[in-house]
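thought: user wants a sequence for this fold. calling inverse folding tool.
action: design(structure=
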């Protein structure tokens, strides 16, 4: 077995009464400089279908804010985190982006968590010239759309094309697999991107390419079609709600081949839905694992998180935690707490030591950083292998 290397909108405020073009950017910049706090928005999925991700990211962000404020804040000013629930709805995410930048006057936004909501919020953030950091929006087109880099959009996570490549190579090199079945969510930009990059990379045969939609519950027809085919593993790009049901139903039908997926698996609800007894021979890409080789920074984060929340931190906790510290690093590098300074500082972020890895922002606003491939046996992490880009 080949060894794998060991291991963020607002809309412009239309001041038609005074005829100010560009939404009063100069006035907003002055108010930001003179503010008593650093206002950061949290546009997050705290209810609805993706609440499992959003609430984890809220925990991570709030812990980072608590630590930073206790240590004196950013450039001498404490963070005021403005938290809003986009209800896992793309239209609501866009509306919140507007309210955060125009009514709350934040200088930056963390979230949304999902790719679709981030893409919905991005035009309003761009109009307001307020940067977004999505902790976990992995769709490649979030930061580069039709060949154009999105000036105010950044991410903390790796992107889907990277995950698809990692998983295809993992199946070949580590699982020694030659024949794949794909069961993909065609209603999700996230899953479609993962499917595309996997197909472009996997050197074996794809013996079946089955499709489902978000909120589907019964997958027995799909599983019956593939059960008697000759295949080595199932590639399952999707979120935990449907993935958990597919895994459960597959195992109950006697399908025992490995099932691999991306970071959408990184939620304990996946195991709750599928059942511990069905969660063996499961592999997925993640941004963080307690079992991966850890720096002192990571060890401290794990200890502090456990003390704060009484549980082990997840990838989504860690990504949002890093996102807040990226804001701190960017603003302190520019020595100014404004949206302009934050945008510049994020674009030039170099060798940032996060708990999800040391990262440098590339020209496309994607971090160069490692990934972790986690293996599960009976619902417990059994392996965590670090993969460098």
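)
observation: tool returned 389 residues.
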């Amino acid at each position: 077995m080949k060894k794998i290397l060991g291991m963020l909108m607002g809309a412009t405020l239309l001041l038609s009464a005074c005829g100010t073009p560009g939404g009063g950017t100069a006035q907003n910049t002055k108010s930001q400089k003179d503010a008593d706090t650093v206002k950061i928005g949290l546009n997050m999925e705290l209810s609805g279908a993706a609440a499992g991700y959003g609430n984890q990211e809220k925990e991570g962000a709030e812990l980072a804010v608590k630590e930073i404020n206790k240590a004196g804040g950013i450039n001498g000013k404490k963070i005021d985190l403005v938290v809003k629930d986009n209800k896992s709805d793309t239209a609501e995410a866009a509306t919140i982006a507007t309210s955060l930048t125009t009514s709350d006057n934040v200088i930056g936004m963390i979230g949304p968590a999902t790719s679709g909501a981030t893409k919905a919020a991005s035009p309003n953030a761009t109009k307001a010239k307020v940067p977004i950091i999505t902790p976990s929006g992995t769709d490649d087109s979030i930061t580069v759309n039709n060949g154009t880099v999105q000036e105010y959009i950044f991410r903390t996570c790796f992107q889907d094309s990277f995950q698809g490549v990692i998983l295809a190579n993992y199946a070949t090199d580590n699982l020694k697999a030659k024949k794949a079945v794909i069961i993909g969510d065609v209603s999700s930009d996230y899953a479609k991107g993962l499917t595309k990059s996997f197909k472009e990379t996997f050197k074996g045969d794809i013996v079946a390419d089955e499709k489902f939609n978000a909120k589907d519950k019964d997958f027995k027809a799909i599983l019956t079609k593939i059960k008697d085919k000759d295949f080595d593993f199932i590639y399952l790009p999707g979120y935990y709600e449907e993935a958990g049901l597919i895994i459960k139903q597959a195992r109950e039908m006697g399908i025992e081949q490995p099932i691999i997926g991306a970071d959408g698996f990184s939620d304990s609800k996946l195991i709750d839905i599928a059942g511990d007894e069905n969660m063996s021979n499961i592999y997925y890409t993640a941004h963080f694992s307690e079992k991966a080789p850890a720096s002192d920074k990571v060890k401290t984060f794990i200890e502090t998180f456990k003390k704060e929340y009484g549980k082990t931190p997840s990838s989504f906790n860690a990504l949002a935690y890093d996102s807040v510290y990226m804001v701190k690093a960017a603003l302190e590098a520019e020595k100014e707490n404004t949206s302009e300074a934050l945008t510049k500082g994020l674009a030039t972020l170099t060798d940032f030591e996060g708990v999800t890895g040391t990262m440098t922002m590339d020209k496309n606003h994607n971090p160069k950083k490692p990934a972790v491939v986690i293996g599960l046996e009976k619902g417990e992490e059994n392996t965590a292998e670090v993969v460098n880009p």
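thought: summarizing for user.
answer: Here is the designed sequence. The chain has two domains: 21-158+295-370, 161-286.
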